[in-house]
Fold:
Amino acid sequence: MRAVPLGATKQAVIALLKDGEYQDGDSIGRALRMTRAAVWKTIKKLQEYGVQIESIKGKGYRLLEPLQLLDIKQIETPMPVSWHVFESLSSTNDYLRSVKSTHDIAICVAEQQTRGKGRLQRAWYAPFGKNIYLSCRYPFQKDISEMAGLSLIVGLAVVKTLNSYSGDQPFVVKWPNDVLYDAKKICGILIEMTAESNGACMAVIGIGINVNMLNDEQHISQPWISLKQITGKDVDRNQLCTRLLHNLFEYLTEFSQQGFAAFQSEWNKADSLINKEINLLHVDKPVQGKVIGVNGLGHLVLRHANGSERAYSSGDTVIKK
Ligand code: BTN
Structure:
């Protein structure tokens, strides 16, 4: 796996360019105690990542769009965690799955993923410096069979976080774990579980949130939206990570203690599928029915045309036209 740790030099150069004014190589070099050639190399690497930096002879360098890199010094967590921060990584989920499993809580974030993964073997588009690509490794003293609701409560923690950016609570969940705004996807969640001895298990919870992405339509096949498109402003990703981790850990703690049942009414309020006729792609075989809701385990309850009701623990949902 190619993993590039986030370099302090890139952070410092971006910080100097953040006002959008020209800065010449000499003054950047003097400020950061590096040679002009080293400044040029750093700028070139950032340009290769897709960062829009204009370079004009005699004037210097200028950032063409606002950018603030991730900085864990600015991200607060409500409990101690081990941090893994990268400028480029294949996938934050794959990384946390590959490092030796200890029982501490680990968080991995990256500025860019080169092989970001979605559910059902889909790819997750992850350009540099724009969005949040975060994975959290979290141990549970639960049997893997009790974990179906985990992806749902992570979706609810994301909804709570995103609603804090908007007065009228417009974000909704789509079972099992998409977060939508105006029927467009803003967040995807990929949970990978490993069963451990003694009925315990370890989850790697991957969260991708479209934050400051604007013109990347050609890379994504389904309708999507970003927080910047909704709020009209650049969003501080360090602050968003702080809010997200605060809500995520609160929900993970409650889920560990009470299970999904404690979240059922919150789910019902945010559920975009309730009473909708849907197709559920379930173990390769589509089934159809009306969504009645979720049960205490977080399984989706459908009423079929013959009046029978059945709960499904996994699948992909599509509203019927
Ligand atoms: C989906 O909607 O299909 C799930 C998308 C999950 C994307 C996130 S980004 C951080 C983490 N690392 C990955 O490779 N995938 C998840």
About this structure: Residues 91-93, 113, 116-119, 122, 124, 133-135, 178, 188-190, 206-208 surround biotin (CB under 6 Å). The two ends are 42 Å apart (CA to CA). The chain has a mean pLDDT of 92.
